[in-house]
Specification:
Rossmann fold, 9 helices, globular, binds S-adenosylmethionine
Length: about 210
């Protein structure tokens, strides 16, 4: 029962637990994935960078510590995550560098080709349609812009009983195929490990 409750919170954070715990839990538990993603992004001062599914905001903070003359945008489908991030990051929003939106990967609220780089960490499991989300990321990147997509491996997730009707786990090959279908090229994949799991970092170019 507790497992089911927690699993539902991960899909759709609600109430006080959703507000005060889930984002912090993700920030801590996914730290290595976010740190590696940040390294692979090679963020520059004047970049325009999008993060999809920012959760507790760990990676967003790292990105705008570098990007002061460009723009950083984050989308997350969860109203609670967006509300919490807006509170925590108010000064960066007010300074005009950070833009947060409550929306889904599958319907990004941006015009075509407006980002240099995009990233997403451990979010694809919850997307309702992986390929539709990747097509959207592709659309909003400029030509030669790139996407860093990081996710925990299917075997690890299955071992931990990470299952819920709102969650879908992916083998690396399925993600690579969906990226190709969305139009990405020069796709490379690296595997890494932290104390909790094996994860994949994929880099794909528009
Ligand atoms: C496991 S958390 C990861 C958060 C953060 N990226 C991290 O690594 O700590 C997944 C995040 O993706 C968001 N999410 C789920 N489905 C989404 C979708 N379709 N579009 C955008 N964000 C989504 C969730 O609300 C949640 O904040």
């Amino acid at each position: 029962m507790i497992k089911k409750y927690l699993s539902n919170q991960l899909v759709r954070p609600t109430g006080l637990v959703g507000k005060h715990l889930i984002g912090r839990l993700w920030n801590r538990h996914n730290r290595a994935l976010n740190e590696s993603t940040f390294v692979h992004l090679h963020a520059l001062n004047n970049d325009r960078i999008l993060e999809v599914g920012f959760g507790g905001g760990y990676l967003l903070k790292k990105i705008f510590s570098v990007v002061s003359a460009g723009a950083v945008a984050g989308v997350d489908v969860s109203p609670i995550m967006v509300e919490q991030a807006r509170k925590k990051l108010r000064k960066h929003i007010d300074s005009g560098v950070l833009h947060l939106h409550q929306s889904a990967a599958e319907h990004l609220p941006f015009s075509a080709a407006c980002f240099d780089k995009a990233c997403s960490v451990n979010s694809i499991f919850y997307w309702t349609d992986l390929t539709a989300g990747l097509i959207e990321v592709y659309r909003v990147l400029r030509i030669n812009g790139f996407f860093v997509l990081t996710f925990t491996g299917k075997a690890d997730l299955n071992k931990r009983g990470f299952s819920n009707p709102g969650i879908r786990t992916y083998a690396n090959e399925e993600v690579l195929a969906a990226l190709r279908q969305a139009g990405f090229r020069y796709i490379t994949i690296e595997q890494a490990q932290d104390a909790h799991r094996t994860f994949a970092m994929v880099k794909a170019v528009k």
